């Protein structure tokens, strides 16, 4: 407990964030020897940059295919420069521009916000969930059993990865926002909101059942309304949290082991879309440590 | 001596490589507190990922603006997917595809080559030497005096940076390939070759003279022909080495302190365009350590 995942703050090379990190709970490999996953040509994640072993876990921070340091692709891409700081400020629930939410767990100085925006980097090719999941599967093929940590758009990619790889022994998902997988025929209707309409994804029941076989925890932060909000940045998360609850019911209804932690419900207030890099990140990491311990996956 | 710059292997988020690293020779700042440079909106380098202090130096590994993790830009870009592995294999002087040069300091296993190609990532916006140099200047404004280490296309950017920042106390340039700066009126004619024509750049004499005030060392590897070669990958470096020699004469002719080390001339054979990550990288790092010591810039 109390381990601080300083590395996790750096796992976000984002536009729409969807990066994964892998906490490996078995014996460590020297970082240099597993610099990225093998497998299909140029579709693999590049996990070389910040991989580290601290004695307890090896941590692989992934630049997913077609983003950041793994930007080289077999398909072309075009990037539109967009002045959208205010959009992200809202969607990432820092506040309503230019005001921070009261009590938000984000530093108020200008430089912190500056650096926050600088963490973003665009897609350099078409987003392809299958390519990305295959890449993460290839990483797990290389490193063996581990815990997959996902964030935001990475949530949906994580379910696909866990379906495809037996080496994913648990999933910790911070604010999964898209790609909720339900059994075909049991997909809930699209959920409209002022922040857009969220559609779930159908997968064969055989695939879905894989998700019932591993412990999974979802964390959501603060300032997510229960009622429809005219603020699209917040309403997008009302819808996502509602869909997540349906998803938890669906997985657990088939014998799964999923827990959804809405942080305000356990007295942790003010978290943004990035709980692991918020000011209270040590406490957030403690929750993760607790989950790993309870799941028998803590290297300690 | 003998210090191994393992980090330097990770400084290359390249298409045409042009990344800088900064070895700071004064007191260290904790990596987290200087995550990237301040300055103009979204034009700064992002140096956060692999910054480290090992007790001797703080090392800032830079993703330059519009590349890698610093891919967000105020200008749009388009990326053409190109099957050009053979081109880079040749231009980076690993060999003539699919054969490695005899004695090349590059591991022969397929996975090493695979990982080598994966280090590349495309530009996400227009290449702008002024923007990039300003960004590196902004980094030096933040961290104070240091040694600028450049590579390839970064060489020319490094001269501009050294002209603009008094905090650049030395430049170590591995295989600078473009952007050789000469005093206006003394620019040598373009140099044609089978690998393309290389043009030098004119700058005001006042700017050029800045380059005479700091120690500078250039390193070039092996398999660079002295005579015209029909292999464009090699001939490109014949031209660049020739231009570099003119540049050294120009700077030293105005009172500068530049040394050009063609590694084969001192008995170090087989180096590619990436001497610092070649198999003999420890020996290459020793040369850098020696340069820092001779220049009075070694923290030891």
- Inertia-based shape of chain A: globular
Secondary structure: helix percent of chain A: 25-40%
**Mean of pLDDT of chain A:** 84
- CATH architecture name of chain A: 3-Layer(aba) Sandwich
What would you report as the Rg of chain A, rounded to the nearest angstrom?
18 Å
Head-to-tail CA distance between termini of chain A: 9 Å
Tally of alpha and pi helices of chain A: 7
Summing up helix and strand content along with how strands pair, one would put the structural category of chain A as alpha/beta
- The amount of beta strand of chain A, in percent, is 15-25%
Strands across the major sheet of chain A, in which order?
2-3-1-7-8-11-12
The oligomeric status of these chains comes to homodimer
Order of helices and strands of chain A: EEEEHEEHHEHEEEHEHEH
Descriptive report:
2 copies of one chain form a homodimer. The first copy, chain A, is α/β, with parallel strands linked by helices. The first copy, chain A, has one domain: Rossmann fold, CATH 3.40.50.1820. Chain A has helices at residues 85-91, 110-118, 129-143, 154-164, 205-210, 232-253, 281-294; strands at 20-24, 52-53, 58-61, 77-79, 95-96, 99-100, 146-151, 168-174, 181-183, 201-203, 215-220, 257-262. In chain A, strands 2-3-1-7-8-11-12 form a 7-stranded mixed β-sheet, with helices on one face. In chain A, β2 (52-53) and β3 form a beta hairpin. In chain A, α1 crosses α6 and α3 crosses α4 (154-164). The longest helix of chain A has 22 residues, at 232-253. At the A-B interface, β4 and α2 of A face β4 and α2 of B. β4 (77-79) of chain A pairs antiparallel with β4 of chain B, so a sheet runs across the interface.
């Amino acid at each position: 407990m109390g381990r601080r995942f300083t590395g996790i703050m750096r796992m976000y090379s984002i536009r729409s964030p969807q990066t994964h990190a892998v906490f490996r709970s078995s014996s460590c490999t020297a970082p240099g020897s597993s610099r990225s996953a093998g497998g299909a040509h140029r579709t693999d994640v590049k996990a070389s940059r910040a991989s580290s072993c601290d004695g307890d876990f090896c941590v692989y921070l992934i630049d997913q295919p077609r983003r950041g340091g793994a930007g080289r692709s077999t398909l072309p891409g075009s990037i539109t420069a967009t002045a959208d700081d205010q959009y992200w400020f809202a969607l990432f629930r820092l506040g309503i521009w230019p005001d921070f939410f009261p009590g938000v767990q984000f530093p108020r100085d200008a430089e912190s916000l500056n650096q926050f925006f600088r963490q973003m980097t665009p897609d350099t090719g078409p987003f392809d969930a299958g390519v990305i999941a295959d890449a993460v599967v290839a990483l797990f093929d290389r490193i063996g059993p581990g815990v997959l940590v996902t964030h935001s758009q990475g949530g949906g990619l994580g379910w696909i990865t866990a379906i495809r790889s037996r080496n994913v022994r648990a999933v910790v998902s911070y604010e999964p926002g898209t790609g909720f997988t339900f059994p075909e025929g049991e997909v809930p209707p699209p959920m409209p909101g002022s922040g857009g309409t969220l559609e779930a994804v159908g997968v064969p029941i055989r695939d879905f059942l894989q998700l019932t076989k591993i412990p999974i925890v979802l964390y959501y932060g603060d300032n997510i309304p229960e009622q429809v909000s005219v603020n699209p940045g917040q309403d997008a998360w009302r819808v996502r949290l509602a869909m997540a609850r349906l998803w938890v019911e669906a997985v657990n209804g088939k014998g799964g082991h999923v827990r959804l932690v809405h942080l305000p419900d356990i007295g942790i207030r003010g978290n943004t879309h990035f709980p692991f890099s918020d000011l209270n990140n040590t406490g957030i990491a403690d929750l993760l440590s607790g989950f790993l311990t309870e799941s028998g996956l803590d290297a300690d």
